[in-house]
Amino acid sequence: MLVDDGAGVLWSVDPEDVRELSALGVLAWEGREGKPSGPAYEWTAFNLLCNAAPTPFLLNGERFYSVDSFHEALKLPEGTAERAACAIAPFLEARRLTHKIRSEAFTYRGQTIAVGSAEHEGLLAAAVSAKVAQNPDVQIALRETGTARLVFPLSYTDHPGALARVTPLTLMIERWKQRHSTL
After folding, report:
1. Which of 33, 54, 59, 68 is a good FRET partner for 106, with 20 to 30 A between their CA atoms?
2. Long-range CB contacts (< 8 A, 24+ apart) of 39-48?
3. Within a domain: 81
4. Is the pLDDT of residue 37 over 80?
5. Can you list the positions of beta strands (E) in 33-161?
6. CA 89 to CA 80: how far, in whole Å?
7. Strand (E) positions, the chain?
8. Is residue 6 one of the residues assigned to a domain?
9. What is the pLDDT of residues 121-177, one digit of tens each?
10. Residue 14 domain flag
């Protein structure tokens, strides 16, 4: 049975042509003294594809600091000052604001959405797409990945969460759209 996994369309058929979506160097040193120099420790180029990157975007009239800030804000009650503050906070602050909150569902635009559902993943994909569409530097960084397969490094579990599942595929679809919109 032939499995259509996207190779040759969304990414290269070369199994070695892979890029991990990780900005651990930036996150580990953010706000700390003695930060090493170099692009691995800055929010530039490829690191802008990371969900924590400060790449503000609007989604359904709401402003978000990053995709991770959006993801964390969903854990807070809709329409509250806390959710609004989380939405515009850098990732580490957004995570601090929600670190003890665990729920099976959240509310977005008046709808209750189950965590990990197709609707949840669709909403996350919309956030990633908005980030790409509204940030020219992200578009450039994405274009510079060529045809590499983008993957999310699984450092803690073999079962990635919704954001880890959605981000690489959404970015590769956005890259494909960029390449084909100019043809």
Report:
1. 54
2. 44/137, 45/141, 45/144, 46/19, 46/141, 46/144, 46/145, 47/23, 47/141, 48/135, 48/137, 48/138, 48/141
3. yes
4. yes
5. 57-59, 62-64, 105-108, 111-114, 149-151
6. 14
7. 18-20, 57-59, 62-64, 105-108, 111-114, 149-151
8. no
9. 999 999 999 999 999 999 999 999 999 989 887 656 677 788 888 998 899 999 999
10. no
Determine the average pLDDT of the residues in 105-121.
96
The residue range of the domain holding 162 is: 20-181
Report strand pairing: 18-20 vs 149-151.
parallel
Phi, psi angle pair for 151, to nearest 5°: -135, 155
Count of domains observed in the chain: 1
Strands 111-114 and 149-151: unpaired
Strand partners for 27? none
Record the pTM.
0.88
Rounded to whole angstroms, the Cα distance separating 58 from 5 reads 31
On whether residue 1 sits in a domain, the answer given is no
> From CA 143, how far away is CA 145, in angstroms rounded?
5
State pLDDT tens for residues 151-162: 887 656 677 788
Across residues 66-91, what is the average pLDDT? 97
CATH code (residue 80): 1.10.357.40
DSSP 158: S
Is the CB of residue 158 less than 8 Å from the CB of residue 86?
Answer: no
What does the alpha-carbon distance between residue 90 and residue 13 come to, in Å, rounded to a whole number?
A: 36
